[in-house]
Specification:
Layout (H helix, E strand, L loop, with lengths): L20 H9 L3 E2 L13 H12 L5 H8 L3 H17 L4 E2 L3 H5 L1
Antiparallel strand pairs: 1-2
Helix pairs in contact: 2-4, 3-4
Length: 107
């Protein structure tokens, strides 16, 4: 039986787990999460040549994964895999992160 982890927990391999892409996208679009002005490219991930475009279309422009997949000739599953891997690495490296509320900053 697999143990469930808390959202945003770091698993044994050091990757952020269980933050849904939909949650991260909504947090970025509502300015609760930061997003880099220059999208980092992780060369070891699939298709580094278009990786930043896929990330930008999904998180900033709100495109559904099916539309991105059709545009770049990939499966929806492959797009989601790339987005999950990119998001995990971006959070761990500090490119994407929670923005503290005004109340938290006052303390």
């Amino acid at each position: 039986m697999r143990r469930k982890e808390k959202p945003g927990a770091v698993n044994q391999s050091g990757l952020v787990t269980a933050l849904s892409l939909r949650f991260v996208r909504e947090a970025i679009r509502s300015h609760r999460f930061s997003f880099p002005s220059q999208v980092p490219i992780f060369l070891h991930l699939h298709r580094p040549d278009i990786q930043w475009r896929i990330v930008l279309l999904y998180f900033i422009h709100g495109w559904p994964s099916v539309r991105i997949a059709a545009r770049y000739g990939m499966t929806r599953e492959r797009v989601m895999q790339l987005l999950r891997q990119w998001t995990s690495r971006a959070i761990l490296r500090g490119y994407v992160g929670r923005i503290p509320t005004e109340r938290e900053c006052a303390i």
